[in-house]
Amino acid sequence: MPKNNEMVQKENDKCPCIIDQIFTGGLQSDLVCKRCNGVSTTIDPIWDFSLDLGPVTLGGRQPSSLHECLDRFTRAELLENKEKTFCSNCQSHEESTKQFTMKTLPIVVCFHLKRFQHTNEVKKKISTVISFPEMLDMTPFMSRSKEQTSFPIDNRYSLFAVIIHVGPTIDIGHYVAYVRQQHDYWYKCDDDVITRANLKEVLGSEG
Questions:
Q1: Residues 53, 58, 60, 61, CA torsion sign
Q2: CATH classification of 5-158 is 3.10.290.10, yes or no?
Q3: Burial class (CB in 10 A: 0-12, 13-18, 19+), 98
Q4: What's the Rg (C-alpha) of the chain?
Q5: Residue 132: which of 97, 150, 157, 169 has the closest Cα?
Q6: pLDDT tens-digit map of 9-66
Q7: Environment class of 26 (CB within 10 Å of its CB; exposed 0-12, middle 13-18, buried 19+)
Q8: What are the boundaries of each domain within the chain?
Q9: From the centroid of its chain, how far is CA 160?
Q10: In what helix (H) or strand (E) does residue 38 lie, and over which residues does it extend?
């Protein structure tokens, strides 16, 4: 898919390896001071999205779809009390908001659902089913500059592979992969057993 050539070229200059060429995007972080409205922006490389599934969203429930997980990931977060940040304009620690958005997208985008929690030496798996689409439009999660009012490039991604964990905990179970081959044929890879699958089965998996 076409991307911002200038940004991609800068990223490629840092590392020409095929992994970075395919999987690296640009994650923009905007820190806005609540006192003076000053904005501090940084852009860092990102290779995959690690998306939280718990404890709960602002709506009082866990996310149930990939879109909701991304909404949560890109939602502005209030930093207050002990989380106050230093504002160079105010020359003091002030309340602020922090928000992540995508400056540039990679050729292949990967999502990691954080299903395993470690609390009080107890390992727990979050088995909530997270629905995901065959086609995902990343435009709502892109950074919007003042000069840019629309996104003429195509930010849509088609589903290519899904890896799921089968089992109650991180210590019990194993991983199964669904992979799309040519002509939209899906296959289920369970250790050394490869069987045909269909899109309905893939979209109905735990994710």
A1: negative
A2: no
A3: middle
A4: 20
A5: 157
A6: 344 456 789 999 999 999 999 999 999 999 999 999 999 999 988 765 455 678 889 9
A7: buried
A8: 5-158
A9: 16
A10: none
